[in-house]
Every structure is written in structure tokens, then in C-alpha cells.
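Input record, target 12 of the design panel.
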């Protein structure tokens, strides 16, 4: 089965072709970072309009790369939610329009399920069951994954997501957009221990997270320095923030493995590309004897490949989930644990 995947939940337009026998054939991605940079964040209306402009050229690109024709596609998967409503509507309308023209089935995919399953695209994918740490700009969750569609929430953020805290810290330090990678790069030059920030809920006894207090601590540190802040001060604050965030994420992930008695950890989402987080988890895996799996760096951010894969896996297990009526809805808010498995 050849599945076309289309991702448009926020500020990246991604398309991909996944073959259930040969794997990922091609994927193409357009990021809107340059367009949103002057606003310091994503402007939903601009994001929606740009998805309209980019989707069909990207479709032509993946078809050309894979040496396939549109008529070869057996099914189309699109991101149904969660995400920006307008951006989701663009992707849903394009996917359903193509499916109607081709008379092919279409299936809506949960954006986080795509991230959750993206490490299965690597050459040596993890086996079920495993613990998943989903960490991005909009979500921070720990899940027990028994199989495709079988997800149990173990813990989640009570307020802000880790990626949001990275972006807010970047703004406070006067860094560029997107902020997460900039904070991580600046932290490389920080002095360990020069700025010690709180580790929220590190010893809470559960698997939940909270990052609002950490953002406030960064704000306090910046204000304390006032006009006297220099580049080294900024690097020290960035280092303190990254160390605190990574300590919490790693500790909670390890606690989840211990609680579930599992030995495989999957890390997915944009923050999963963070070098410091990967180093901390890799070191812990070596000490404690568990395996940690990541998607390729190019597939950590939003992409069409993860949507195509999730669509292919769902259609293989539950072919009745395929839609042929081409009437669609989107779900800007959608709890991962409510996904249908029949």
C-alpha cells in the first residue's frame, strides 16, 4: 500500500510517500520560520495561507523524488488535529479533495500519534511496548505505548510545555526565533552552576510536569541583572535553564520506565532534537541498562512522513477507519488517549 501523508498543523507544510513494503520513499518539508520571525511567533492566518501555497508544489516534489504518479497512491492520510484550526482545515481540504478526485480512501491522523510512531521509521525501530516522551512546543507528555492505538497517559504538563518554556526563555534573553535551538546553542557557552534555577516537580512523586515556574525564574534572573546583563550572563542563564529543564525531563522519563518496568524509551517531538537532552538520556541509558530511541533529526519537527506512517499502520489494522465520503472535520483540541482502535 502506498500512502500519501500531509501535515499542516502549525507552521510547517510536510508531504511524504510511505510504502508498506519499501518504507519511506520520499518526504518534503517547507518551514515558515523566516516568515514568522519578524513577528516573534506563529501568526495563524499567515500560516494557513502559506500552507495553501506550498502543498501542491511539495506534492509534485515527493512524486518526482519517488518516481511515482499520483494515480499510484492507494490512500491519503492527513493531520486532523490537534493544531491551529485554520492550518488544519487547509490540510484536510487538500487531502480530501485529492482523495475525491482519485476515488481513494482518506484517514485523519492525530498529530501526536504521528510523532509517537516516528521512531519506527529508522532502520532499527523499537519494539512494542515502550514508554514515550512526547516533548514539543505545545505538548509534554509521558505515555505507555502497548501497540499502535494503545496509549496510556502516565503524566503530562500541568501548565506550559517544555518547548514553550524554551521559546519564552529565548525572548527574555533577546534571542531569535525559533527560540529553542538558540537557547541550547547559547547554553554551550554558559558556566555550569553559575545560575541555578528550580527543577519544578522533580520530587513530586508522580510523572507530571510544570514549566511555568521555571519561566518565571528565568524572568527573575534577567530582571535582577537589569541593564548590566552581558553576553556571558545570558549564556549562564541559558545554561541554568537548559540544565533544569533537561534534569526534569530525564528524571521523569526514567521514573516512567521504572514504574512500568519497561526497558525501551522513545523520545519524539521538536525538543527531542535537543542535544543536551539526548546526551542526558543516552548517559542514563548506559548507566541503567535501558534503550533509548529517537527519530532522525530531520523528522523530529512536524513532517509528512510521520503522518503517512501512522496512516499506513492504522489502515493495516483497522481498514474500516478509512473514509470514502470526503466530508471532514478538524480537531484543534484532541486527547491522544481517546483515539479509536476499531
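The sequence produced for target 12 reads:
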Amino acid at each position: 500500500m502506498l500512502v500519501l501523508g500531509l501535515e499542516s498543523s502549525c507552521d510547517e507544510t510536510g508531504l511524504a510517500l510511505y510504502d508498506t513494503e519499501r518504507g519511506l520513499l520520499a518526504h518534503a518539508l517547507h518551514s515558515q520560520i523566516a516568515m514568522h520571525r519578524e513577528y516573534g511567533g506563529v501568526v495563524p492566518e499567515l500560516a494557513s495561507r502559506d500552507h495553501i501555497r506550498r502543498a501542491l508544489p511539495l506534492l509534485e516534489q515527493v512524486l518526482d523524488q519517488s518516481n511515482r504518479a499520483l494515480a499510484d497512491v492507494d490512500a491519503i492520510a492527513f493531520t486532523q488535529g490537534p493544531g491551529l484550526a485554520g492550518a488544519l482545515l487547509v490540510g484536510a481540504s487538500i487531502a480530501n479533495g485529492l482523495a475525491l478526485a482519485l476515488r481513494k480512501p482518506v484517514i485523519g491522523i492525530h498529530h501526536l500519534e504521528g510523532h509517537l510512531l516516528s521512531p519506527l521509521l529508522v532502520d532499527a525501530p523499537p519494539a512494542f511496548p515502550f514508554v514515550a516522551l512526547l516533548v514539543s512546543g505545545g505538548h509534554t507528555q509521558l505515555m505507555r505505548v502497548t501497540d499502535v492505538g494503545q496509549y496510556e497517559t502516565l503524566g503530562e504538563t500541568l501548565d506550559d510545555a517544555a518547548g514553550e518554556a524554551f521559546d519564552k526563555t529565548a525572548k527574555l534573553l533577546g534571542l531569535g526565533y525559533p527560540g529553542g535551538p538558540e537557547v541550547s546553542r547559547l547554553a554551550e557557552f554558559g558556566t555550569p552552576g553559575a545560575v541555578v534555577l528550580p527543577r519544578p516537580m522533580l520530587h513530586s512523586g508522580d510523572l507530571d510536569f510544570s514549566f511555568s515556574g521555571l519561566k518565571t525564574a528565568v524572568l527573575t534572573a534577567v530582571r535582577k541583572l537589569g541593564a548590566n546583563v552581558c553576553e556571558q550572563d545570558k549564556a549562564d542563564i541559558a545554561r541554568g535553564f537548559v540544565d533544569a529543564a533537561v534534569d526534569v525531563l530525564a528524571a521523569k522519563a526514567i521514573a516512567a520506565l521504572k514504574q512500568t518496568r519497561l526497558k525501551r524509551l522513545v523520545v519524539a517531538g521538536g525538543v527531542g532534537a535537543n542535544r543536551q537532552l539526548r546526551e542526558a538520556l543516552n548517559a542514563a541509558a548506559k548507566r541503567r541498562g535501558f534503550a533509548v530511541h529517537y527519530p532522525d533529526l530531520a523528522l523530529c519537527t512536524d513532517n509528512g512522513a510521520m503522518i503517512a506512517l501512522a496512516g499506513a499502520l492504522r489502515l493495516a489494522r483497522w481498514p474500516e477507519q478509512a473514509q470514502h465520503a470526503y466530508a471532514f472535520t478538524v480537531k484543534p483540541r484532541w486527547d491522544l488517549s481517546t483515539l479509536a482502535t476499531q
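The first strand starts at residue 2 and ends at 7.
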